[in-house]
Amino acid sequence: MTITEEDLKKAVDEAVDKATKGLKEKNAELLGKLKEEKETREASEEAKRIAEEEAANKSGDIEKIKQQLEAKHKRELDTASDKATKAEARLNQVLIDNGLTDALIKAKIAPQFLEMAKDHIKARHTPEIGEVDGAVTALIGGKAIGEFITEWSQGDSGKHFIAAPTNGGGGSNGSNSQGKAQTATANMGGTREERTAAIAQKFQLSDK
Q1: Which of these, 151, 153, 133, lies nearest to 141 by C-alpha position?
Q2: Which of 106, 146, 149, 151 is the most exposed place for a label (fewest CB within 10 A)?
Q3: Residue 94 and residue 149: Cα distance in Å, rounded?
Q4: CB atoms < 10 A from the CB of 205, how many?
Q5: Which residue has the higher pLDDT, 24 or 6?
Q6: Quick one: pLDDT band at residue 171, thresholds 50, 70, 90?
Q7: Is there a contact between 130 and 139 (Cβ–Cβ < 8 Å)?
Q8: CA distances (Å), 206 to each of 92, 119, 124, 125, 133, in order?
Q9: Strand spans (E) along the chain
Q10: Contact at 8 Å (CB) between 30 and 38?
Q11: The whole model's pTM is what?
Q12: Residue ranges under compositional bias (Polar residues) (predicted)?
């Protein structure tokens, strides 16, 4: 039997095909897995990107909510601070007014002149709140209000407001009657400012 070159080539091709068939199938299998893995990886990356975008959007919402809460908190804090400031101012005013009234009474300022004396002092000095020996108190000119009023009442400006001592003698009665007339005259005017001006003019009060 004569084997031709064509037969030999065919036999070789069949042997090669047979020998490489398993390898080709394995290669095709691997290629298929690689393709699947690539598609899975791409799908995973897409899912990750979408998740990151959603997270970014949620983060934006959280930031907006955070800003809204901060703004609301600031408004509430400002309101509370404003109320506290106003309450403190009212408390300070009461402390000053009460301290001034008590000090004037102790200095024997005539009752009918109390408001005039307070207006007279406030027009020339600025009462404030401070501490003396660790205690919160009203101050005028850096001094405790009681100390200031004591000094003021003994000066030219304050002595005119002091109530005259009561006397039972005839001469004293005549003098006292004159004092009453002066009091009635000095207490004229409709407004507090007018009364203060009247008493200041009558007794020629200084600015001290």
Answers
A1: 151
A2: 106
A3: 17
A4: 21
A5: 6
A6: very low
A7: yes
A8: 27, 14, 10, 13, 32
A9: 128-132, 135-140, 143-144
A10: no
A11: 0.46
A12: 178-188
